[in-house]
Amino acid sequence: MRIERIARDKVRIFISYEDLERRGIDRDEIWHNGKKVQELFWDMMETAYEEVGFEVAGPISIEAFTMPQEGVVVIVTRVPSLPARKDEEDESEETMDFELPDPLDSNFVFKIRDFEDVVLIAHALVEYAIVTRLFMYNEAYYLTVDENSMSDDEYDSIWAILQEYGEFSGLTPTWLEEYAKTILARDAIQTIADRFSLR
């Protein structure tokens, strides 16, 4: 298990498949809220407090996604109990995630700062039949990608392309649907690649 504090109210936890096996948890079981998974979560929170001073207090948002070779990445965010006031909307995105994500939601989100990079990503990923949507918030773009629409063999390549031009975001698709502007509600990658050519 490896823990990184990536913001005042957010930590990223890497759990290898070997760690899961030692705890008697198989890859599919991680998505179910069984006793072993609950014990693992509280062990993670205890370790996060001991190693980086991250303490669970109040509501939290939990997001998890798998990487075929490495293991599972879990992002835990302390969130306010009420949405930000209008005069607080310019705060960083780390304080914007108000809802506990659906644990069955297979979508993850990447933040892309420039539209040119969105176009580059689109052309790099257009060969993959992945399900994507595009949103805009605070002059940045947010691409949601459905993990279930890619194969294990494709995962690493797609992830590498997204990381090259963007950064993983702690915002959830549910939050984006409510607070961000929807640019493309479906087929975002295919649509952008069709409409915008590379310079």
Automatic annotation (TrEMBL):
This is NDP-hexose 2,3-dehydratase. Transmembrane segments: none annotated. Belongs to the MecA family. It comes from Alicyclobacillus ferrooxydans. Pfam families: MecA. InterPro entries: MecA_C_sf (IPR038471), Neg-reg_MecA (IPR008681).
